[in-house]
Design goal:
Helices cover 29% and strands 24% of the residues. By secondary structure, it is an alpha+beta fold. The chain has one domain: OB fold (Dihydrolipoamide Acetyltransferase, E2P).
Length: 161
């Protein structure tokens, strides 16, 4: 009986280990570090800021001013959102984006940003200067990860070239 009890405990421990909260995040090998003085590709900022929500609150990268470039996702504007994406995802449906950054702002600035986006040439590269932030996504299993956001103070903090 003692041997059976030990075997049962072993399998419980093993299953707990196998089903534990492994929230590891696979990041690309070609990832560049954030350049706090220059312009950063949204892909690099996205992956440098992707982490478990429990780690994000104490991470010093959030709350800092940053300059990011990418492309505006056209379908997100039609849904009243503004999302910065990689070039090959600028026309994807919002639910099919793999990496994106949400642009946030005070409501009067955000309305002006949407108006600006509606009359801009979205085929051009978009440059955004603001404060790096994050949003906690709903958990998948036992893990909740971040989605990156950038907070703009002014409509002039976004332009196209």
């Amino acid at each position: 009986m003692n041997k059976i009890f030990k075997i049962i405990l072993f399998f419980i421990a093993l299953s707990g280990f196998a089903c534990g909260s492994d929230c590891s995040i696979d990041k690309p090998k070609n990832l560049k570090p954030i350049d706090w003085e220059g312009w950063n590709y949204m892909y690099d900022v996205y992956y440098n800021s992707l982490m478990e929500c429990s780690e994000a609150g104490n991470n010093p990268i959030f709350g800092r001013e940053i300059k990011i470039y990418g492309w505006i996702n056209k379908p997100s504007i039609e849904d009243g959102k503004s999302v910065l994406v990689k070039e090959n995802e600028k026309n994807y449906e919002f639910g099919h984006l793999t990496q994106c950054m949400f642009i946030t702002a005070p409501s009067d600035v955000y309305i002006a940003i949407i108006q600006k986006l509606n009359v801009s040439d979205l085929s051009k590269k978009c440059y955004v200067k603001g404060t790096l932030g994050y949003i906690c996504l709903p958990p998948t299993g036992s893990c909740s990860t971040t989605s990156t956001s950038i907070y703009l103070e002014s409509v002039d903090d976004i332009y196209f070239e």
